[in-house]
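Why predict the complex rather than its parts? Because the way molecules touch one another can change local conformation, and only a joint prediction can capture that. The input here totals 319 residues.
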Amino acid sequence: MVDADFALIEAIAKGDHCAFEELIKRYQNPVLNFITKYLGDRCMAEDLTQEVFLRVYQAAPRFNPRARVVSWIFKIAYNLSINEIRRRSRLAKHAASIKLAAKEMESEGSAEFAVRYELEEEIAIGLKSLPENQRAALLLKVNEGLSYLEISEALELSVASVESLLFRARKNLKKLLSETQTKEKE
Amino acid sequence: MKCQEVVSRMAAYVDEELEPTLAEKISAHISRCPSCKEELQAFSGIDTMLRNLPRDSLPAAVAARVLGAAGGTEYLRAPSGFFRTVWSTIFDRLEKLFELLQTESAPRTKSLEEFNDVPSSFIGHAYFRIIGC
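Output of the joint prediction:
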């Protein structure tokens, strides 16, 4: 199968600015959303998204034609996110800010919005509690629609490992969410 | 198929990554097994919740910054073209001319009083008096 994005990478490698713009248009939101949910930090996600595309631009001449462009881009995004997690531990701060926002909305009387926000908060906390590779695999599959093969390339794992990660990620998330709901009922 | 087998492949089943024959077998099992059906619903429920999370869009300014930064890299990498050199020279000259004009139009002296100490015997004294009028 011919990778439709490969032509863009070839053009970028030759200094074609329009091709780079097109690639950004195609991937800016998927990359931003992956990093946002992976890190739980929207501001940092914007910075890292910029960094991802600059790296793509710089590394385009060295792109391995046998690799898939989508896997390569998400691999860069994943590696930058991992580095960020190791460098800073901002996730706890983010969870606190969501809680605060939910409380503020509740006090403003927007009950429906607050319930929705609470659910989002639970999912965000559940995601945060997952091991890093499970979280990445789940977001790439469910939110960004990558195939197992593409995820395996992005995370440098076998396809079987990706399946296993996705199975455990869902099991763990289900367990975490049901635990949270049980606690709330008590 | 046994439940354990079905559950172990549930992720790949939900993600439509299984061989069609195996997927059909699992579908058949799920249709008559309530516990596997429940497991499938739980997996699908997780996916739905994740998909319902708000999606962000990269602000246009951020994308523009990336393009700008990449353009900068390109400019440094590749020498400028003919037109860029010509325009750069023209702007450089215009800037110098503008600076010169500014200097010309600026007041050259604060007041003629600063020449008051020029001796009256000095020939320039008459000149300063004239332009002072």
